[in-house]
Amino acid sequence: MTVYAHDDIQVASLTTGPIQENAVLVWGPEKLGFLIDPGDEAERILAWTRQLGVTVQAILLTHAHFDHIGAVQPLREALKVPVYAHPEGDALYRLGAASAARWNLPFVQPEDADQTLTAGQTLTAGSLTLTVRDLPGHAPGHVVFVGQGTDQQGFAVVGDTLFQGSVGRTDLPGGDHALLLRGIERELLSLPDTTAIYPGHGGPTTVGRERNSNPFLR
Q1: Sign of CA dihedral 70, 84, 111, 169
Q2: Successive 10-residue mean pLDDT values, the chain, 218 residues
């Protein structure tokens, strides 16, 4: 497990489940934070948050594909926190168990989200602030969360929009490749090149690295 520092803000990811999805934990100096996209292995994620000493204030979802929401229900119950999701992903969210069944994977269907996410919304946990940006194309209602440390060192938790050398697949229901690329240009490539990118699969990267070398963005 690696913890990345953005001045006073810390970001860590934990790869879970057979689809190797990254659950992301973000917190500030008060050890208050958000858990983003807990996809599987709820007990392991819970132990991880306790090992890091972070008090989770809410579970945030970038989107509702089943590999990003598989641990939501047991964790919301264990942590006693609300779940935030974009309402345009509700239909996909409610199909989680059916989608997982196609892969013959066990899945606990989560109850509906407690709160909605909207573009421009800010979420705070102590001195940590995340800003919600809409970025559909991989999935309906997909959002990304952008934050920064006090020295302006920025980061974004981007779900399945942008990866090292790739972008999110758009051949699934609700996918739109052109829409995804426009969103990446508008919401991510508009950030400074030094901005760290934490994706839903694979390792972290930066805006500058992907701007300069990602073949999908040329």
Answers
A1: negative
A2: 88 97 97 98 98 98 98 98 98 96 95 98 96 98 89 88 98 95 97 96 97 95
pTM (two decimals): 0.97
Q: Is 42 exposed, middle or buried (0-12, 13-18, 19+ CB in 10 A)?
A: buried
The per-residue pLDDT for 149 is 65
Q: Is the dihedral of CA 193, 194, 196, 202 positive or negative?
A: positive
- Give the 3-state secondary structure of the chain: CCEEEECCEEEEEEEECCCCEEEEEEECCCCEEEEECCCCCHHHHHHHHHHHCCEEEEEECCCCCHHHCCCHHHHHHHHCCCEEECHHHHHHHHCHHHHHHHCCCCCCCCCCCCEECCCCCEEEECCEEEEEEECCCCCCCCEEEEEECCCCCEEEEEECCEECCEECCCCCCCCCHHHHHHHHHHHHCCCCCCCEEEECCCCCEEHHHHHHHCHHHC
CA of 52: how far to CAs of 6, 11, 199, in Å?
16, 11, 20
Single-letter residue type at 97: A
Cβ proximity of 92 and 174 under 8 Å: yes
Q: What is the pLDDT of residue 148?
A: 83
Q: Report helix, strand or coil for 128.
A: strand
Instruction: Look up residue 37 and give its two tokens.
Output: 């996209």
Amino acid at 111: E
